[in-house]
Structures are given as structure tokens and as C-alpha cells.
Amino acid sequence: MSNATHSATLLISAPDKKGLVAAIANFLMTYNANIMHADQHQDNVEGLFLMRVQWDLRGFTLPMDDFAAAFEPIAREHDMSWKVSLSSRKPRMAIFVSKYEHCLVDLLHRWRIGELDCDIPLVISNHEDCRRLVEFNDIPYHVIPVTKENKAEAEAEQFRLLEEAGVDLVVLARYMQVLSHEFVTRYPNKVINIHHSFLPAFDGAKPYHRAFARGVKLIGATSHYVTEDLDEGPIIEQEVTRISHRDEVDDLVQKGRDLEKVVLSRAVRWHLDQRILSYSNKTVIFD
Amino acid sequence: MSNATHSATLLISAPDKKGLVAAIANFLMTYNANIMHADQHQDNVEGLFLMRVQWDLRGFTLPMDDFAAAFEPIAREHDMSWKVSLSSRKPRMAIFVSKYEHCLVDLLHRWRIGELDCDIPLVISNHEDCRRLVEFNDIPYHVIPVTKENKAEAEAEQFRLLEEAGVDLVVLARYMQVLSHEFVTRYPNKVINIHHSFLPAFDGAKPYHRAFARGVKLIGATSHYVTEDLDEGPIIEQEVTRISHRDEVDDLVQKGRDLEKVVLSRAVRWHLDQRILSYSNKTVIFD
Amino acid sequence: MSNATHSATLLISAPDKKGLVAAIANFLMTYNANIMHADQHQDNVEGLFLMRVQWDLRGFTLPMDDFAAAFEPIAREHDMSWKVSLSSRKPRMAIFVSKYEHCLVDLLHRWRIGELDCDIPLVISNHEDCRRLVEFNDIPYHVIPVTKENKAEAEAEQFRLLEEAGVDLVVLARYMQVLSHEFVTRYPNKVINIHHSFLPAFDGAKPYHRAFARGVKLIGATSHYVTEDLDEGPIIEQEVTRISHRDEVDDLVQKGRDLEKVVLSRAVRWHLDQRILSYSNKTVIFD
Amino acid sequence: MSNATHSATLLISAPDKKGLVAAIANFLMTYNANIMHADQHQDNVEGLFLMRVQWDLRGFTLPMDDFAAAFEPIAREHDMSWKVSLSSRKPRMAIFVSKYEHCLVDLLHRWRIGELDCDIPLVISNHEDCRRLVEFNDIPYHVIPVTKENKAEAEAEQFRLLEEAGVDLVVLARYMQVLSHEFVTRYPNKVINIHHSFLPAFDGAKPYHRAFARGVKLIGATSHYVTEDLDEGPIIEQEVTRISHRDEVDDLVQKGRDLEKVVLSRAVRWHLDQRILSYSNKTVIFD
Questions:
Q1: B105 and D109: CB-CB below 8 Å?
Q2: Chain C residue at shortest CA distance from D240
Q3: Do D42 and A34 touch (CB under 8 A)?
Q4: Domain B7-86: what homologous superfamily?
Q5: Which residues form the active site (chains A, B, C, D) (predicted)?
Q6: Given a cut of 80, is residue C126 above it in pLDDT?
Q7: Which of A139, A39, A152 lies closest to A93, judged by CA?
Q8: pLDDT band for position A87 (50/70/90)?
Q9: Residue B109 and residue B102: Cα distance in Å, rounded?
Q10: What ipTM was reported for this prediction?
């Protein structure tokens, strides 16, 4: 592997105590790391130290194959959880979609112009509707219908495709099906969903109808990691837009589409850029 | 009464049907009204027509004492609810406050520089804390302690003061007490509250603590008319601000203060300017 | 022409005086118009009355072919400028694009899902780059290279295509060429441009680079009608987003794309919905 | 000096190179610093490393009187500019005001409730108007009229008062006078101004009138350090709010007041919290 123009990103969480920054900085300096970005956070309530550091691999004297062995003693000493990623290894992302295509169109365009640094080996849907669009982007499109009766088999088929494709991240781009316990536990913090409300307001079904009925003056959208508790996973990003008494449900749906696209795409980009650490059902988004 | 530089504002709601605008416009034209602002809205779901029209009283040939008699036949024909207000008669506003003074400071300053066009005959509190500030503004300050035991007598004393002062509008500027059924029904759509969350999220107590615990990325504030159902009244205005993982509960409280001030003051100004029509637990805010 | 499910929209501007609303309301009532939306505005500085009224053509007893003859006497009496549009006649929109495709992708998707109610008979570009995308949407794609030398001939060819296609509206979706005086005067208030800054800040070239150099904390985008004075035409819509010291020029470009898409698409939708009146180098956006 | 409950904040800028973080972290660890917050930034365009680190002084084994001597060798080795501040030493802030009191009211209230951690030894004005308000807050109020003729003497009197009071920061809370070259060079990055527009748009006089004339859809406010070039100093914070065709100049002024208060108070708080580093006519705002 040539390290030219490549970088490594290290995400760390540990019980907060003195000397953590020095330990990490000294380790990296030992191998002549050229740090490009570093950001850290201390959660004083949980007593946690969280850090993201990215460095240029040019001139880094530790082969990345030996990184784990070299870093592990320090990690153990400070009780760190850690994960390192290489920019040379593109994440592989699957998109799940039903019939609404606006988030899918948006994600595919961002991917095509290089805003999302990943491979997209497949799109999975329970409907035929988006095939032409997906295939226009030269991505395989798999239709797996889901019913109450076949849910287990449908997911088995999804797992087979995801594993075959070596998928790291699943994005639910308005995929109108609830994932099983098994799905969620297989992909912890690896499934991102977009919910079309400002959670925790209007969790569950038909949020735009309920926002209209309640007479709120702003509507929102929320992207989050999927956990077993529906709409209760760690929130990654939220955004709102103003509505007025002149807006009917259809107007809310239309204005909401713009929110959903932006809020989902930010979450996906931050995840792909290794900028999210999730703990205690919250997220840290590193700058 | 001299009409010079004065205006009248008419708020109307009626079952929607053809000819409503023409009926109102012709009535006003008959008496030579010079319309300054007009705004209307049709709620297609409820089948309602809602209108606000404001006109200069100079040159208006119908004495306002005779307005009701002249307009009533048209109102009856079209099944209108209506209310007319004169700019020459300033609304009288009472402010209720507990210990947090930021909304009070804000309202008093806006009032002093003419942003809120009303008289403030009194401020009522269950604590002594804000006396010096209120009296600096030459407004009488009444302390009425409220406990579980004396709640009925305390409200009786409040009613006496409000009636004596001829109060039209009660503003709860972070008044930390729940009003009784009797209070709310005495002042329908005449009590404005500020809730320190983006309702319906985090209704009830300690919203900033709960927002922090849930890990939301935006916090909000909501002003609404007080009804019998706590935090369920018609929403007048909402606003949000961004927070991050770096913000602790105290930061939320601090950022929230700026939201609360802006959101409450807009609601009060719009109410004083006769720009709000409330129906079906929603509000129309006329431009 | 069957009027079933169709509507008409009337835009009016006139010197402000008493009786205008009554005159218009009475005219429409005479022919049994069922008003769906009405909004009006008085510009007190300019002494102008501006109105938009939309009505259902079912039950309207005046054939729309006779509308002009019937309305003209009223218009003349009150010195009105007016324009009526029928929902049955879809506007025809041309899109001009260079190499950046994000606004084009966005407009085409909104059009495909019905958010933009128009026909798109052609896309014109000075480059080949977007051909595949446009043709995927079954829209003819015309490449007309533009150089300093051939500018007049290039525009002549553009005019020929626009006229042949009966185009009502030209949208410059990041078309990186300045239009001639002749172009602008041929299509007054009919060419919408997106400028990638918060005008009047950073008008002219390379606004993201200049915003970065100046160290602003927010960047913006502006959609406007094109006039002879570059970047000086009537502003239709603006929006901003927050940046920080961590954002480099490339980040501004990326964040700006999301603004440009939203700000341009709103302008186009409002124009297509006959919701914009332009005067004194400003716009009124009717609700 | 007791270090109990006190903290120190170190701001550093240096040419970017390897080992800076390790050098600083090791220095602090040597003296057993308990780091509370750390944030750093690399400006890749300028090749600069910028850092803010705050630590608890309890248990810190280096007396702060010896800090400079101990840190200077490291600073020299890495060519650092640096500045350390102690929370035990409250900054001293002077406020300059003319007749508009909204920013002054806002700052004084934030100060009273502890949002601004500073002493305010005096307020200086060229008018009597705000005396009662300032003295209500038990702060000395000095009126120094300024005319073309007496400008030099007036500033001399201002300098005398500022020096006598040991002022670290001057806040221009809508002070409608231009400061001299001498004033600005005496207090580099120590004078904060609020400009009532979204700079660089509408720099100079009467920005609300010019925003109205241009027909923009958003208005803004900007806080910045004052430099010799009027309205050209490093921007600290900006915010905008939406306006519509219904807003006249007076409405812009009213909406703008809310922006000015928020944008100025954020700048002041960040400055007092040692969170701003200024370079190349830009600011870094540390989290």
C-alpha cells in the first residue's frame, strides 16, 4: 500500500483523566505523524474523554498493519475504546428506499460529484419504482418485497446481499419498513435513518399530518442511528423550517423534503468522514 | 373622540362562501374607509374564511359608536364572528413573573421604547425578587405568594387586581405556577405563556434537562395561549437555536433565554396589534 | 375549453386609492367567482396597491376569452396594470446550464415529482457535460458554445430555439455567461438567475473565495430577475448558512450548493405559480 | 493567591509543524494540569496552528507567577505567540453608548445575571439619555460630548477614564462616533463594535434604509473588532433574520434590534471567555 496522499483517522473514547492528550500526542509524534485535524471533547456528566485525530500517512514511520499492536498498550493503560480508519479504504454504503425518491436522488448526486466518499455497491427496495434512476447511476438495484408474512426471509435475503457486497453502512432513505431486532444488532451504529419530524416531537407515523393538526410554526427532520427502540436512537442531525397558517399538509410535505435531504446527507457525510462518536444514546460530531 | 391619526382594526371569521370579501369591502367603501392593511386567509380543511382589515379613521364617515349597529346585519347575513378594536384605546396588559427576570426585563424595555403599544398597570409575582426592576419602570408590583393551600385565595386576589386595573391581556413571563380552570375560562385567548421547549416536544417540567438527556441538536421555545390543557393551547410562535455536544444544561438554559425573550415578545406584540385569530386550537397570524 | 378543475390568477398593481378592493371583488362576484386565495399589499412609500387573486373557474360565468374586454374598463378607471394566467396553460421553461449540475439535477427532480408545474421543452448549455442527465429526463439538450467572438451568433441561435419552443421563462442554473442587453430586454422579468452570495455582498465573480478571505460567519445565495445591471436585478429569495473558521473555500462551495438549490427552486416555483410581482427593482412575493 | 476553583486559559498561535500538541500537552502534564477544555485549529492556507487550552488550577504544581518563565523556552522553540488568563482576575469592560439603549439594556442584564463574567467600572456616552438606566445598575455614568472641534480632547478624557478604571475591553453598544486612529491602536483587538448590517453588505451609514431600498429578503447584524478601516475589522459573529415586502424601514429597525443584541452579546461573552483568536483580519472562535 502506498501511503502517498492517504490519511488515517483515529476515534477514541476513554474515562477522562490527566495525561490522555499527552499520551496520544506522544505516540503519534514518535512515528513522525503530521496531524491534519484534531478535535476532542470532555463529557463532564459522564466523565468521558472523546477524541478524533487525523494525520497524513506520508512520512508516518509506523506501517498501518502494525498500528494495532503498537497502540494497544497505550489504549489498555488508559482504558480506551478506539478505532482507526484509512482514507485509502472507501466505506461501502447500501441505500434502502421505498417509493419516495427525493433522498435517494439527493444522495446519488452528492456521491457522483464526490461529496460522499464511498462506494455504493447496491440499492435495495421493496418496490420497483426507483429502478431506472438507480440503474442510470450504474448501481445494481434489488427489489425485495416485504410483507408481514415474509419479513424474516426478506431480511435474510437483505443480509445475504449486504454481506456479499461487504457493506459497512446502511442508509434508510425514506425506507418505509421497520427493521427487526436482528437487523439492528447486526449493524450497531451502522444504520442511519431519516425521520420526517423534529424528534422527539411527532415520533411514529404521519408526522406532517400531526404537525399540521397541532398548529406548530416550524417543522423539522431528524437523522439518527437506528436502534431497537423506534425513533429513539442517537440523534445525528436536525434542522427545521418555518411554516405558516397558509401551509396545508401537502405544503408541509414539500417543505419537509428539503429538510430531509439536507439532514440525511449531513449525517451520511459525517459518518463516512469518521466524524461521529456515539455513546449514551447521544452523538458527538467532531469538527 | 377625535379620529385624527387613529385607526380601527376588524377581525372576522366566517364559514367560507362567495361574496364575503365584496360584502366587507363594500361596507367599508360606503363609509369612505381608507384601508391601510388587509389580509385574509381561507382554511380549506375547516371551510373557514378569516380576515383582518385595518383602516384610517380620518374621513371615515361612520362614527365608531354606531359601528356595531351598522355592521351587525352584514355579519348576521354571513354568519360572521367579528371584533373591532380602536388604536385610540390602548390595551391594558398585566405581567406575571416568578424569579427568572429575563423575559420581564425584555418586555419592559420593549414597552418603554414603544415596541409594545399598551399600558402596563401592574406586575404580579409570587416572589419579591423583581420588585426593584418593576418599580424602576414606575409600575406597581404586587406580591401574592402561592401555595397549595392558598391557591384559591391567591387567585381571588389576582382577579381583584386584574379587574380593578381593567386588564385585557395577561402575560406569563416565566411565571412558574399553573393557572386554575377558573382563571383560564375567565380570560379565554387572553393569557399568553412562554414554554421553554419546542412544543409538543418536552412539554411539562424541566425541558432543558430532558433535551440534554435526549441529545437533540436544536432547542426551542414556544409562546401559546393558555387553555385548560397544560402546554396544549394554540401555538402563537416558535423559534429554535442550534446546540452541540459541547453544551451542558446550563448552556441550554442560557441559549434558551434568548429564544424565550424573542418568542414571547413576538406573541405579545402580535396580540396587541390585533394580528392573531385563534380557532381549532391553532392561530392565524395576519401579516 | 373545459373549466373543470382549472383556476385563473390575476396580478394587479395600481396607484393606491380607496375602493380598489371593492371594485375587484365586485367584478369577480358579478361572474360568480369562487375565490381560492387572495393576498394584497400596499407599498406606502411608492403609493402602490398590489394584489393577487386566484379563483376556481368552475361556475365562473365569464368565458375567459372575454375576460380582457370585461375587465379593461375597471382597469382603466383605476389605472391598473394587470395580467391574468390560466392554470390550464402550463408555462414553458428553458434551463441554461454550464458545467455545475447541482441546480439542474435539483430542478429536474422537482419538476418530475410535480413540484414545478411547467413544461421543459429544452435545456441549453455551452458544454456537453450535462447531456446524459438531461436526456435521461427525456428533454432535448442543445449545446451552443459561447466565445467572445461568437456571442451574438450564439444568442441568435438561443433566441431561435427559445421562440421555436414558445418559452415563457429562462432559468440560469449556474450558467456562467453574462447575457447581452438584447437578451435581457427581450425577456423582462422572465430570466431568473442564482447568484452564489448574499447580495449585495460579494457581487461579481468568485464570491466564495471572497467570503472566505473576508472571514464572514455566514454565507448566502440569492435568486433574482436578470436586468442589464449585473447582479443588480430584483431579488426574489435569499438564504444563508453558518460557516466557521474550520471551513475552507471547498467547504463553502459545498455548503453553498445546498443554498443555491433551495433558493433557486423557490424563485422558480413562485414565478410559475404567478406569485411574484416586481416593481421598483423589488419583488412582492404573495402568500 | 488561592488556586481553589480557579482556572487558567492559554491561547497560542504558531507556525504549524509537527509536535506542537505534544509539546504543549507534555508541558501541562509535567505540572499535573487537569485539562477542562482544549480546542485547536489548523489554518492550512496560512500555515498556522492555533490552540486554546483551559485547565483547573487545583493541583497544578506550577505557581502561575512562574508560568511565563517556565513556558517561554517552549514558546521560543516553536515560535509561539501566547497569552495566559486567570479566571480569578475578572476582565474590566467599559461600554460606550449614544442614545439607542437596547444593546446597553441587554448587556447590563446579562452581566447582572452572571452571563458576562466581568466588572463594568463605567459607561461613557456623548449624551445624557441613558444615565438613569446605568445608575440603576450602580455603574458610574460619564457624559463626554463629542463634536468635530473637541474630538481630540474628548478622546483624551475617555483615555483618562479608561486607564484610571483599568479597562481591558471597550464595547461600542451602538456608539455613533468613529474612533480615531490613536484610539484603535491603543486598544488593538480590544474594542468590539456592533454594525447593523450583514457586512460587507451595507457598510457605512444607514444600512437599514439601504437594505430596504435594495429589496433584500434577509437583514443582518455583525459584531467585529474595530480597526482603522471603518467596518473592515475582523468579524466575530453575524446573524440574520427574514423580512418581507411588508416590512418598512421601521420594521427593519425593530427586527434589527433583536439581531444586534444577540450578535453583540455573543461577541462580548466569547471575548471575556478568552475564546477568540484574531489573525489575518479573521477570527477563530474556539468551542
A1: yes
A2: C240
A3: no
A4: ACT domain (3.30.70.260)
A5: 231
A6: yes
A7: A139
A8: very high
A9: 11
A10: 0.95
